[in-house]
Amino acid sequence: MTQNNALKKIKKEGKSGINKIRILHYLFKLGKASVHQVCTAIQLSAPTTLALLSELVNDSWVEKKGLGNSNGGRKPDLFGMAAGKFYILCINIELFTVHISLFDNTLAPQGKTVAIPYSLSKDRESFQSVLKQAKELVKNSNIPQEKLAGVSMCLPGLTNPETGENFGYLTDNNDTRPLRDYCAAFFKVPVIIQNDVNAAALSELHCGKAKGKKNALVLLMDWGVGLGIIMDGEVRKGASGFSGEIGHIPFEDNGALCYCGKHGCLETVASGVALAKMAKEGIAAGQHSILKELSNQELEKIEPRLIVEAANKGDLFAIKLLSNVGSNIGKSISTLIQIFNPELIIMEGRIAAAGEYITLPMLQSINTYCMLQIREKTEIVSSDLGISANLLGCAVEGVNHFFEEHTK
Ligand SMILES: [Zn+2]
């Protein structure tokens, strides 16, 4: 009996089975909860909730996780999902690297994350080697294949989670299947895909700085620029999953040509790609910078992380580049603050790692362009999830999806 079938088995119990799965899903979202919290959330009586929880404990899906705070009486028992019930293989596809990791149903990573150098393009043929390495990772883990509930992927570009299509990358003309279906045929388990910034927003909402927040924005400043929108405590993906494409909003009149085909997009002046391009052009034009040494005189190797490293070592050219990006991002964020009135903006990604070199000019821009009353209500912070943010977002989406599929 596979765990997948085990969840199906719970579902077959009828109404109480569906309620058990809803309880498990709720425990996943909260981490741990008291009987009272579960009753209120699932809208069941206390005796029914207790009976269902005790059956879940007996079947080793749920275990006690210590005591909660008391309101004067006895401290309540807290319940949480048991670890290792099922696993999600997570694949975070970036422009030049793919990160792969396995997570269990409690988001505990299983073994190390694998980083594969890979140049993302339309070519599906070359992507086969990445898929093979992902399959190897599962094979080499101690996890029984039947406990693999599915694969959850994220990548840049317009990605529709409903249809499983990505419109920018891995769109081989010889194979018209949506990317999701193409991968599902390879793995022979369910596959889900989403946009990278939505994955980042989901990880922040579930286990990062947006946890418990109702209205927050997640600004991904990496090779590209993207926006994750959290409203009313949910990640809002838009009608087709395309929300948050701020990298391609018009920023400069008669600006540089963007890879999307338009001119003057925000990404042409405030992205990792733009930053690396400006650094290379500047140095080629004779700008003095330690980036030359840091890249071992190979200018092609200059990437955002290297520019941040140079800035941290006091390199004026790198600091100036980051400052310009910060000002431009700040101007764009002002528009977002005015539109969304968020309580929190979380910055993520390689460029966000530049810290104050980015945030100070950014704040200056925000103060210049934003209405004070709205700006005052917005806190701006850096993510502390690091490079695992997108993978975690894939894992959260995978577990959510698995439960939702079984409560339909
Ligand atoms: Zn563009």
From TrEMBL:
Keywords associated with the record: Kinase, Transferase
PANTHER family for the chain: BIFUNCTIONAL UDP-N-ACETYLGLUCOSAMINE 2-EPIMERASE_N-ACETYLMANNOSAMINE KINASE, ROK (REPRESSOR, ORF, KINASE) FAMILY
Entry-linked SUPFAM superfamilies: Actin-like ATPase domain, Winged helix' DNA-binding domain
Pfam family, one: ROK
Protein's name in the database: Glucokinase
Superkingdom as given in the UniProt entry: Bacteria
Coiled coil: none
GO MF term list: kinase activity
Signal sequence segment: none
Species whose genome carries this gene: Niabella soli DSM 19437
Family: Belongs to the ROK (NagC/XylR) family.
